[in-house]
Amino acid sequence: MAWYDEAVFYHIYPLGMLGAPKENSYGEVVHRLPQLHPWLEHLQKIGVNAIYIGPLFESVGHGYETTDYKKLDSRLGDNEDLKNFVSECHKKGIRVIFDGVFNHTGRDFFAFKDLQANREHSRYKDWYCNVNFGGNNEYNDGFCYENWGGYNLLVKLNQRNPEVKDYIADVIHFWVREFDVDGIRLDAADVLDFDFMKNLRAVANEVKPEFWLMGEVIHGDYNRWVNEGTLHSVTNYQLHKGLYSGHNDHNYFEIAHTVKRLYEMGGNRPDGLKLYNFVDNHDVERIYTKLNNKAHYTPVHILMYTLPGVPSLYYGSEFGIEGKKEKWSDDSLRPELKYEDYKDAVNTNPCTKLIAALGQARHKIPALSYGDFRELQLQNRNYAFSRNYKGTSAVVAVNNDDNDCTMNLHVEQEGEYIGVLSGQKVHSNNYSINVNVKANGGDIWVLAKDYDGATVVSEALDTAKIAAENAKTKERAEKPEAKVEPKKAETKAEVKEEPKKPEPVKAPKAEKKQEPAGNDKQSEEFEKGVIAGLQEAIIAIMEKNGPVTDQMRNDVYNNTHHDSLVTWVKSFR
Length: 573
Prior knowledge:
This protein has 573 residues and is of the alpha/beta class. It folds into 3 domains: 366 residues, Alpha-Beta Barrel (TIM Barrel), CATH 3.20.20.80; 87 residues, Golgi alpha-mannosidase II (Immunoglobulin-like, Sandwich); 59 residues. It is built from 18 helices and 21 strands. The strands form 5 sheets. It has an 8-stranded parallel beta sheet. A hairpin with a 5-residue loop joins strand 18 and strand 19. The longest helix is centred in the C-terminal third of the chain and has 26 residues. The two termini are 35 Å apart. 47% of the residues are buried.
């Protein structure tokens, strides 16, 4: 057992949450990071015991074009601020992992600056992939190079270069020595070289006991990345998709299929695949925005906290705020939040009350962290399963219908059971319990004698109040300063949904090509043909790399975003 087996994560995008400028002038240091300290008490109240924060280090814009891996971004503060923040977290029993952006650097990174100055004579020319001194680019460097996602702002590191491996290893040693960090989330892990990741795992094993490596991975067999030789965990985008679409479509079969497939992928063992579960993050729309029925906020989060894996909240989503992805920016996904606006949310906001209750349940019920998974009941609109561990168990039931439902569920032991979210009590009869599951709600049932935590008043499960509270928080999430205007280097190029644009876009209207009258239908058919061609290209490449499952094919055909598909094609090596 390690600390991350019992973790409940809180994901912070600091440049957004703290309202930092979109561009870095490399000027005076502004000490914004200490503004996070008051939030730590709030995180304790909602059951968070781990933070994933990043990107943190000096960069020119959104944080993923790294300028200096050993210096806190001057828009956030200095290294002493980061050291103090991690120390305060540790004092409160909260672990901290940093964003590790090791696939690419920014153009202001020292090795790239040397390459610009010395060209063929630069000792760092082999630090980057496919540098061609016979080419050129939009920056007029007089050479070209391989980038990430088609954007020359992000220069791809040569991860097979021993010097690069040693340098990144030194960075990790520095982060542990200087900041006492507890792990790293590897950005774009699905395109990192596997030998490079194995080297990172060797470094992780030596720098600190239980140092955790988690990778950003979108598609594929997660076992390729999660094993004893590479990473401890990866982002569970498969479950992420199922959780919102399964509710929007009133289709628990989709969620159940995903859960069973991932559990089988881990050898049908509770410790087989401990994936990083989430419903939103800094790259995708807020869960409250995605849900057609806002009341589904409740069953979605019950599932995220109780299904196999490590749950993670994205900052602000515990308040039910919204965030919609825009064409040229992710600013609305990464808003500034003021602690004073939310300091009483645990007492006043039903969304936050629910999250706090789920956090408590996660820590009070070991079966939710270590238990096996057994499906008990499955219909389009209701779903139940159990998690069992060392003679204790938790029975979870959710309902996506607008009416209450009754479910008869198998239990492992006879006795009185309590719903830890509702406070309801029922007695088992012949190893089964008959429970009422509220409309668009759910509960976690445990033996009353085994649960020493407080139950939640029904208000926390009142979906009408959750919807009403969202009307208040929505205004905060849509402050004027969060409105999107095209700007230089807004956000990192995206695989998941619409890609980010690192270059200036001065006139958005000019981006919209004017079609001649009557050509709309032809243009639409042409675009469909391009999408279909890209999908077929991805399938063909996958087939060359190994067996292609039906789910893998579905993942491809469900992606209809042109730029995302182009990036996907480029990601294959």
